[in-house]
Amino acid sequence: MPKLKTHKGAAKRFKKTGTGKIKRNQTKVRHILTSKSPKVKRKLGKSVLVSDGDHAKVARMIPYA
Known about the structure:
By secondary structure, this protein is of the alpha+beta class.
């Protein structure tokens, strides 16, 4: 079995937790922040888990993380 290559773009965006789940940062925090409430901006600063539908695809891209 050959070694698998890590998708370098995915490696910069996703991290594995100790239990094997995959964390990601949230979108919509780069610009147009004046129209967002402070509560929304606080919530967007926190990381969340990758959804179940995307988990297998992301896990394939970061095999050794």
